[in-house]
Design brief:
By secondary structure, the chain is of the alpha/beta class. It folds into two domains: about 5-110 and about 230-310, FAD/NAD(P)-binding domain, CATH 3.50.50; about 115-225, FAD/NAD(P)-binding domain. About 30% of the residues lie in helices and about 30% in strands. It contains eight helices and 19 strands. The chain has helices at about 15-25, 55-70, 120-125, 130-135, 155-160, 180-190, 235-240, 280-310, and strands at about 5-10, 30-35, 75, 80-85, 90-95, 100-105, 110-115, 130, 145, 165-170, 190-195, 200-205, 210-215, 220, 225, 230-235, 245-250, 250-255, 265-270. The strands form five sheets. Strands 1, 2, 3, 4, 5, 6 and 19 form a seven-stranded mixed β-sheet that branches. It has a five-stranded parallel β-sheet with strand order 8-15-9-10-11. A three-stranded antiparallel β-sheet has the order 12-13-14, with no helix packed on it. A hairpin with a 3-residue loop joins β4 (about 80-85) and β5 (about 90-95). The radius of gyration is 23 Å and the shape is elongated. The relative contact order is 0.17. The model has no long low-confidence stretch (mean pLDDT about 95).
Length: about 325
């Protein structure tokens, strides 16, 4: 017989675990199915989370798993491969397990596709970074580079200039004519040097970034490189359920209300599954918000059913 849960949470990162914690404390039978691929795994520490500043991501997730277990929440390491909607939701995992759920939380996050420059992927999360709010303090006042991935990278170059006064903006495959006059004026005002030309590779010494080499041969001494990966939202399950998506400059994300409810009744999404800019603290908040809404939704559904049963025919 297929096991039935009040809620199945797909994804065990900050958003999924936060949702599971709220649901468990509300006495709802909850299952978390987690593939074990957190987005921030390459980072040694997570920053900017009050009371958890500097904590290693793996330690943060381990603490979260311990907390949800106190409230009877089950967690399995597996990957969801199919979800079907009927009277309930049927969730099938790669390991062959099939369960039913009254409600779903999809917290599958996103994948980062890095620029195909030799050295970038190998150093990502160490001295190749994407978020100055996450890592800026730790690398402050060092020589920064910013590797453009689109004209929108101008914003990243401007932001990181708050942590270093030595910033070089490598246009890479972006033509200078793609930048507006306003972009160029702002970069100049921020003291950011614009470097045209394609980047060939990163230069390292003793496992540290020491420079950025262009295809024409020039090497620019740099010890930190920021870049904006292409965000790939993991929306496959939501799409198969028929959830409506909307296009953004950072990819297609599900249309949700203020609680994370998608256009599919009974399905909530949270964390990086609904937005590129979600920090860990934002993701946890979104999971909490979705779970709170589900608790109320299940209560009203059950009360309405009880009222109908009591009403005279």
């Amino acid at each position: 017989m297929t096991e039935k849960y009040a809620v199945v949470v797909i994804g065990g990162g900050a958003a999924g675990l936060s949702a599971a914690l709220v649901l468990g404390r509300a006495r709802h039978r909850t299952l978390v199915i987690d593939a074990g691929e957190p987005r921030n795994a390459p980072a040694a520490h997570m920053q900017g989370y009050l009371s958890r500043d500097g904590m290693p991501p793996a330690e943060f997730l381990a603490a979260g798993r311990e907390e949800i277990a106190r409230y009877g929440v089950e967690l399995v390491r597996d990957r969801v491969v199919e979800v079907e909607k009927g009277e309930d939701f049927t969730v099938v995992s790669a390991g062959g397990r099939s369960v039913r759920a009254r409600r779903l939380v999809v917290a599958t996050g996103l994948k980062d596709e890095l620029p195909a420059v030799p050295g970038v992927a190998e150093r990502f999360g160490r001295d190749v970074l994407h978020c100055p709010f996450c890592h800026g303090w730790e690398v402050r006042d060092q020589p920064f580079g910013v590797l453009a991935t689109s004209p929108a990278s101008v914003h990243q170059a401007l932001i990181v200039s708050q942590w270093s006064k030595d910033v070089r903006f490598f246009l890479h495959t972006v033509a200078e004519k793609e930048l507006s006059d306003e972009d160029l004026r702002r970069l100049a005002a921020a003291g950011v040097d614009v470097v045209p030309g394609e980047v060939a590779e990163l230069v390292t010494e003793d496992d540290r970034l020491t420079g950025v080499r262009l295809t024409e041969g020039t090497t620019h001494p740099r010890s930190v490189l920021f870049t904006a990966p292409r965000a790939v939202p993991q929306t496959g399950l939501l799409e198969r359920l028929g959830a409506e998506l909307h296009e953004t400059p950072f990819g297609a994300y599900p249309v949700v209300d203020a609680t994370g409810l998608t256009t599919v009744p009974g399905v909530w999404a949270a964390g990086n599954a609904i937005g590129f800019s979600e920090q860990v603290v934002h993701a946890a908040s979104g999971g909490y918000r979705a779970a709170s809404a589900i608790v109320g939704d299940l209560l009203m559904t059950d009360l309405d059913a009880a009222v109908r049963r009591q009403s005279p025919a």
